[in-house]
Each structure stands twice: as structure tokens, then as C-alpha cells.
Design goal:
7-stranded mixed β-sheet, 4-stranded antiparallel β-sheet, globular, binds pyridoxal-5'-phosphate, aminotransferase, pyridoxal phosphate
Length: about 475
């Protein structure tokens, strides 16, 4: 299969210097004087990057299967997106950024319906737009708290009491008998703003020194691989996890009004659970009147071979909210139940409330994904890649452990006994790949990643483990 856009990207990677090379080192030293560079992965020349390939100032060009932490949908300098960016509509959106809640553009309904809402998860027909994954989650949590309180208070028309308003101003008990919480799972990642950080449980470094809410965490099932050989144990782990969720819903001293879950725990190390587990989670949350928020910030937009990863679960009862960001370039949460809109304006509000320019970009992304049928293509490329990785894992079982993501598009990962060295060597051999959790190598290619790119990747992986 040839590239989707003729002549757009190079045939393969080029490594000219060590990375960082001399030019990068000089530029990094200059940058470090004014900007913390300690998390820097690679100084990037975005003008010279194209398609699946990321370039640096030293002329190195790497196959990029990390893609700005899983956030580039259609490749660097995608011609279709560049065209959308040059439109009058985009220019107007960029230079006339609205305070969206107060001054929505006259055609905002059309922009939403032809873009963000065109790909809305089944059963969810409204959206609250936001700016990043963390704030998509936080605003979803706020919607959950307000929904639950409104319900307990007797409905949207019941006025707040004087006592409630006074205690709110004192950061005190919100006038009700008990605080509420959001339940998340151990090793989950839902962002780093104050509220979202309390549901993030992947690494202490994210959380140290930051005041956090006393919210419950359930154990995410730790599946054993290969799945076929551990079916019974894995089913038992999933059942134990669901039992724990129910126990926490009923007994945690600060009752949860919502459970938030990633379809595949991504930052936490690519931890999967079965569709049956998630159906069980939907059932137990529904049974107890607790909302289910599915965090599709990393899994959304096709990488798992479905537009939304939760489509793999075959739910008859949709999640209450689905949050998105990353490859969407914009962010927010989808919902269906009108009661998830708070009873009064300004309760869920900020200046930007998202960004129409980014919403236009998302629409152009969706157009391209549909035109090129990239979700089905990603499913097929993922199957191809997974099959070949299984072959490598059979030859080098110690180097490719717990290979996971079968049938989940290109959302594939494995554990490496020398993960950080693996990532470094990959870079030196022309592949930019990321890690997650303690030992996972996670693949997050773009939706334009094809079999030919997979072959390049596999050759590099084979070289890493055989030399
Ligand atoms: C599942 C998930 N949720 C939320 C976030 C936070 O998104 P952001 O970094 O855009 O705030 C991330 C980021 O990696 C994520 O993977």
C-alpha cells in the first residue's frame, strides 16, 4: 500500500548523528536558560517533519510511533489539515477567539454537528467542549457532582438554601449530609489538574506535594498473558475487581457519584480488561445510580480499530459521559442525559470553554478519517503488526513479554526487561517510540501508519533484541 498522500513523507528513517546531535544540543542549552528542558525527549523541527516521520535540527528523521504522546492523528504537516488551516473560516476562528459560553459563533451548532458531534458515541448527543484531557475530565466530574446533588435536592427546580450558599463560600460542607467522591482505578491516569489528579494513580511523581481529595480507588484487573492460557484466572481477577467496585460504592466513607475508567489504562502501562469487565462495570454503576465516565482521551479516534474504544464492549446501555482530547486536538465530554446540564447557567463555565479553531481542525480530521476509511485501515494494520510481533515474541520471549492489544488496532504494547535501553536504541536506529508504566513499550502510531511502516518498525525491533 502506498502512502495516502503521494510524495509526502520519506521512504524511511535517516539517522545522521547521535540524538541529540550537535545542533540540537546547542539549541537545547539555549532553551534551557528560559524553559525547563528536563522532560525533553527530542528537539523537533516541525517544518521538516512529514507524515509518520519526525525530524530534528541535525537532519535526523525518525519513524514516529509515539506521535506527541498519542496526539497526532494524521501525520505531521498533513496536506488536508494544512488546507483546512488556510481557510477563511479558520483564520477568523484563530484571530477572533470567542468566550464561547457568552458569545458562541453564529454557526457553532453547525460546526459541532458537522464535526465533534458527527462522531459522538452512540447514545450521547451533546457535548461540553474543553481545552485538554485533564479539564475534560474535571468538568465531567463537576457535571457528575452537580447532577447528583440536584437529584438529592429534589430536582432542578429546587432552589439552593441560604445555608448551602454560605457554606459553599467557606469551602465547607456543601449543605448536604455528606461529601461525594469520584472513584477511579489503581494505575489509572486521568490528568494532572487538581481534580483530575485525585483520580490519577499511575506514578507518585505526578502527585507529590499536591493536595488531593480522599477518593476511592478500586483495583484494575491485572490480566495475565497470553489471554487464552489464563482465561479462568483473568475472569476471576475481573470479578474480584467488580466486587471491589461494588463494595466501595456501598461502603466508602465518601460515597462516589461517578466511576471514571480508561478503556485501556494507557499511562499506567497499557493495562487491558475484557469487554465483559466493562459491561459488568456499566451494570454495577447503573444498579447503584452511580455515573460511568469513560476517559477516551488517549484511546479515542480510531487507534484501537474502532472510533471509540468502548465500542469494543458492545454496551446496550451507553456510558453517561465520554471524555476526549489528544488526537481530537480539541477536548470535552459527550453526554446524553439532559439532567447532566446543571440547573443554572454559569455553574459549568470558563472563558474559552474550548476553542472553535480546534473544533474546525477536528472536523477536518474526521473528514479525512472517513474519506480514507482510516479506522478500518488501522484495525487491519494493527492485526498485521500484532501478528508479526507475536512471531518476534515467539523467537525472543524474554524481550517481548505480555504482548497485548490483539484486535485493538495499533494500540499495542509489550513489557521489556530493559525498557529504557530499548527506547534509546530504537531512537538510535530511527524509531521514536514511547514507554508507559514501569516496563511497557507502547505503540501509538498515527492513523496513517501502514503495513510498510510496520515492516520498518519490526526490523528495528528485531535488531534491538538480536544485537
Ligand atoms: C487517559 C488520559 N486521560 C487524561 C489525560 C490528560 O490529558 P491532558 O494531558 O491533555 O490534560 C491523559 C494524558 O495522557 C490520558 O492519557
Amino acid at each position: 500500500m502506498t502512502s495516502y498522500y503521494a510524495g509526502w513523507e520519506p521512504e524511511g528513517p535517516t539517522v545522521k548523528t547521535e540524538i541529540p546531535g550537535p545542533k540540537s544540543k546547542e539549541a537545547i542549552a539555549k532553551l534551557d536558560k528560559v524553559f525547563d528542558t528536563r522532560a525533553l525527549n527530542m528537539l523537533t523541527d516541525f517544518q521538516k517533519s512529514s507524515g509518520n516521520y519526525i525530524a530534528d535540527p541535525d537532519g535526523n528523521v525518525l519513524l514516529d510511533v509515539y506521535a506527541q504522546i498519542a496526539s497526532i492523528p494524521l501525520g505531521y504537516n498533513n496536506p488536508a489539515l494544512a488546507k483546512a488551516a488556510r481557510s477563511d473560516e479558520m483564520v477568523s476562528s484563530l484571530i477572533n477567539r470567542p468566550a464561547l459560553g457568552n458569545f458562541p459563533p453564529h454557526d457553532w451548532a453547525h460546526v459541532l454537528e458537522s464535526g465533534i458531534l458527527r462522531v459522538a458515541p452512540k447514545g450521547l448527543n451533546q457535548v461540553f467542549t474543553a481545552m485538554a484531557g485533564s479539564d475534560a475530565n474535571e468538568t465531567a466530574y463537576k457535571a457528575a457532582f452537580m447532577w447528583r446533588r440536584q437529584h438529592d435536592r429534589g430536582g432542578p427546580n429546587v432552589e439552593f438554601t441560604e445555608e448551602e450558599m454560605a457554606s459553599a463560600m467557606n469551602n465547607a460542607e456543601p449543605g448536604a449530609s455528606q461529601h461525594l467522591s469520584i472513584m477511579s482505578f489503581k494505575s489509572a491516569f486521568h490528568g494532572r489538574l487538581f481534580g483530575s489528579l485525585s483520580t490519577t494513580r499511575s506514578k507518585p511523581i505526578h502527585k507529590l506535594d499536591i493536595p488531593a481529595f480522599d477518593w476511592p480507588q478500586a483495583t484494575f484487573p491485572q490480566l495475565k498473558y497470553p489471554l487464552e492460557q489464563h482465561a479462568e484466572e483473568n475472569a476471576a481477577a475481573e470479578k474480584a475487581s467488580l466486587d471491589e467496585v461494588e463494595h466501595l460504592i456501598l461502603n466508602y466513607h465518601i460515597p462516589p457519584c461517578a466511576v471514571v475508567v480508561e478503556p485501556i489504562q494507557s499511562e499506567g502501562g497499557d493495562n487491558h480488561a475484557s469487554p465483559a469487565f466493562f459491561r459488568g462495570l456499566r451494570a454495577v454503576t447503573r444498579k447503584h445510580g452511580v455515573l460511568l465516565i469513560v476517559d477516551e482521551v488517549q484511546t479515542g479516534l480510531g487507534a484501537t480499530g474502532k472510533f471509540w474504544a468502548h465500542e469494543h464492549w458492545d454496551l446496550s446501555d451507553p456510558p453517561d459521559m465520554v471524555t476526549f482530547s489528544k488526537k481530537a486536538q480539541t477536548a470535552g465530554y459527550y453526554y446524553g442525559n439532559p439532567e447532566l446540564r446543571p440547573n443554572k447557567p454559569y455553574r459549568q463555565f470558563n472563558t474559552w470553554m474550548g476553542d472553535p479553531a480546534r473544533a474546525l481542525l477536528f472536523r477536518a480530521i474526521v473528514d479525512e478519517v472517513e474519506r480514507l476509511d482510516l479506522v478500518s485501515r488501522t484495525a487491519a494494520v494493527g492485526d498485521y503488526l500484532f501478528g508479526r510481533l507475536e512471531g518476534l515474541a515467539a523467537r525472543f520471549p524474554d524481550e517481548f513479554r505480555n504482548l497485548r492489544g490483539k484486535g485493538a488496532g495499533t494500540f499495542i504494547a509489550f513489557d521489556s526487561p530493559r525498557r529504557d535501553e530499548f527506547l534509546r536504541r530504537a531512537k538510535a536506529l530511527g524509531v521514536n517510540v514511547g514507554g508507559s508504566g514501569v516496563s511497557a513499550v507502547r505503540l501509538r502510531p498515527m492513523l496513517i501508519f501502514q503495513e510498510s511502516h510496520a515492516d520498518i518498525l519490526l526490523k528495528v525491533f528485531e535488531k534491538i533484541v538480536s544485537t
